[in-house]
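Pasting two entries for a bug report.
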Amino acid sequence: MTEVYTLHRGRTPLLVSVPHVGTEIPADIAQQLVPRALLTEDADWHLDKLYAFVKDLGASLIVPRFSRYVVDLNRPPENTPMYPGANNTELCPTHFFTGEPLYRDGGSPGDTEVARRVAVYWQPYHDALEAELARLQAEHGHALLFDGHSIQAELPWLFEGRLPDLNLGTADGQGCAPALRAAFARVLQGHTAHSHVIDGRFKGGYITRHYGRPAQGRHTVQMEMGWHCYMQPPHDYDEALAAQVQPVLRGLVQALLAWRP
C-alpha cells in the first residue's frame, strides 16, 4: 500500500478504479469540517468489496485511501464543472450531496490549500492511473479502464427524480470504441432485474473523459450504481443484494476483456 492508494496489478488489459471508496480524513482537515462530515456519508461505500471479483478475472484494481471530502479524484485539477447548469461537487467539495455545508464557518479551503491537496492526494492517484494504463497498453497493445461509482438513487440537490439502478457512462460515446459501447448495451439489456441507462445524467467524470482516448488505444467507461443495489441503509453491505447485481457487473467486465481492437 502506498500513502494514498492500493494497487493490485493484473495480467489483462483492464484496470478497475473506484476513486470514491476512501473514508479516511487527515486530522488537520477533519478539524475544519462539521462533525457530520466525519461519517463520510457520500463515499462510494464497499465498492472495493463489490468489485473484488475482478482480480480473479485478471484485472488490475486501484483503491484510494482518503475520502472524496479531502479531494475528489474524479474532478479535473482546474475544478471546471462536470455537468454545467446543474449543482456540482467541487475538486475539494464544500457541500454534502444534500447541499448543506461541509465546513465550519470560515473553514473552506482556499486556493493554496486546494493546490496542496492536489499535490499530496490527487496527483499520486492519477500518476498511478497513467502508469498502470501505460504498462497495460505496452503489454497488450491497448488499455481498458472501468471506473466504478455508487450513489443514493434520490438526491434532489444533484439531480431530479430517481436514478435508474445502473447508469453507464461513456462520455457520450467519446470514451470508448462504438463496438464496446454496443457490447455494454447488450449486457445491460440481458439483465432485466435492474433498470439501466447509458449516457444519462452520469456520462462519466474526469477519469472517463480524460483517460478515454480510443484513437490512441485507451478505452474507458464509468458505472454509477444506486446504493440500493448492494446495500441496506445507512451503509451496510448486503451479500444477497450484491449477489444479484454482481452478474451484471461481471458481464460488463467480461465484455471488456473479450473485446479486441
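Entry 2 (this is the one that rendered wrong in the viewer):
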Amino acid sequence: MIPVDHAMKLELIIENYGLMEAEEYFMNLPDSAAKKAAYLGLLRGYVRYRDTTKAEALMVKLYDLGLVASPHPFNEMMKLYLLTCEYRKVPLVIQQMKRNKIPCNVLSYNLWMNACSEEEGYGIAAVETVFRQMQNDKNVEVGWSSLATLANVYKKAEQPKKAILVLKDAEKKLSTCNRLGYFFLITLYASLKDKEGVLRLWEASKAVGERISCANYICILTCLVKLGDILQAERIFSEWESNCQKYDIRVSNVLLGAYVRDGLMEEAESLHLHTLQKGGCPNYKTMEILVEGYVNRKKIDEAIIAMKRALSMTKNCHWRPPHGLMLAIVESLEKDGNLEYANKYITDIHNFGLASLPLYKILLRMHLYANKPPFHILKMMDEEKVEMDDETHSIVKAFTL
C-alpha cells in the first residue's frame, strides 16, 4: 500500500467502524509518510464527531511530527470551533497560521468571517475587516463563495440591501462549467425574499452545459414555494417532468407539501395520483405529507391508511413519523368515540415500537368510557417499558372501582 491508500482506508474505517478503530489504525501506521497522508482523515473524523479535545491533541502531535505545513488542518479546526460554537478560538487559529507562516486560502477567510459574524462583540465591522484582508491578499482570489459568505452575514444582521448588492457581485464570479454556485446564491436570494434574483439565476444556470439535476429542481421549487409563488413552481415542475429520465418522487414532494400547507388537499390528491400514473414511487415523506393533509381535513380513515403505508417504509430508513401526527389521529378517534379503530391503530403503532404514553393514555380513557377492560393496553405498555405518570395511574385505578 502507498500512503494515499492508507488515507483512504482510514476514512473508510471511520465511516464503517467509528473513531476508536481509526485511531488504532493511525497509531499502527508503518512510517511517517503514511501518517502524513492519513492524519487529515483522522482530524476530519474528530470534526465530524465534534471531539475538540482529541482534535487539539492531534494537532499538537502533528506539530511534533512536522506535518502541519498547509492550511487544511487549520481549516478543519476552524470548522470544529464553528460547530461547537467556540467562535473566539477561530481568530486564535488564524494567529497560529500567521506565526507558522501558513498562508490562508479562500476557505480560511470564509470560516474566519463566519466566526466573526457569530461571536458577540465582533459583528459586521470585524467581518468587513477580514474581507478587506482577503481582498488585499495577492495569493487569494475572491470568488462567489466568499461574497456569498459576506452576503449571508449582512442578511443575518438584517441588512438586506447590502446583502443583495454583494450577491449581484457574486453572480459575476459564477462559473459556466458548474451549477453549485448558482443554487447557493438562489437559496440566499430566496432567504432575502428576492424572487427576481431567484428566477434570474435559475435562467442563468441553464447556460451551464451539464444536465440540470433533480437536486437542482428540488432547490428551485423549494425556494419558490417559500416565496409563495406556486404558479411558477408548477411551471418549473412541468418543465422537469417533460425532461426527466427517471421519476424522482422527491421533486414532486416539494409541490405536494406546498399544496397541503396551503390547504389545497384536492390539488395534493390529484398530484399524488398523477405521480403514480407517471411511474413515481411514493416514499415515507410522500405519505407523511398526505397524512398531515388528511388530518387537517379530518379525513381520519385516509390518514390511517396513509400512516400505515408510511410505517411499512420504516424498515429501510431512519425516518419515523412525527409524534404530533400520530397523536392527532388518536385524538380524532377519541373525539369520534371510535374505539375499534383506535385499538387497531395503536396496536399497529406498538408493533413498530413507536407508541408512547400520551397515545396509550388516550386509549385507556376510551376503554374506561366504554367500560371495557384495558389488559391488552397494559401488556403493550409493559412490553415497551412505558412508565405511567400520575394521571395514567388514576385512569388505571378507575377500572378497579
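Dev reply: Rendering is fixed now. As a check, the viewer should reflect this: The chain is about 75% helix and 0% strand.
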